[in-house]
Design brief:
About 10% of the residues lie in helices and about 45% in strands. It has about 190 residues and is mainly beta. The protein has one domain: Calycin beta-barrel core domain (Lipocalin, Beta Barrel). The protein has a 10-stranded antiparallel beta barrel. Strand 5 and strand 6 form a beta hairpin.
Amino acid sequence: MKLITTLLFICVTSFTIAQSEYEPTALDPYGNKNPKAPKQLDDFKPMIGICDCDSERRNPDGSWAKAVKMTWKFNYIMNGMAIQDQTLKADGKHSGSIRQFNKDSLSSYLQYYASASPSPNLGSCKGKKTEDKKIVLYKPQKAPNGMDGFSRLTFYDISDKGYKWISEWVDPKETVNFPSWRISCVKREE
């Protein structure tokens, strides 16, 4: 009986460790990419860790509001098969998202959520890394005047020292764009 109990404990422990070996831990607070994860998950690798950021939104009159201080944390989840981020803003409006790569569409998908606007359905964007090293994601969105277009989210100037991000409305041909939110981040931790 003792042998069966010991073997069962070893099997359960081994299974549990295998299911979570790439998750964040006290020793590795951001986790690691699972070797079985798509290589495109590496597009977000420079963002893993914590950044100190300035977040600026556009005022109704078109001017930019005063920057709000925030932290932006990226870490691996789902045993290293996806990346989650979380923002903590000084104004109390927090948000986050989950990033996964879909091999069938050859696109990254981002599901967004926010404390100020809980929703039964998460917003979703789709995109990929461009040749000029930007990560660009799109979500269909009409302009306030009803014109068809997209919400375009772009990570750019990505390095081991930080990155920048901008949210813009663009028309279908991307000849018209209107920036509404921009964030500039400096890496604090990796």
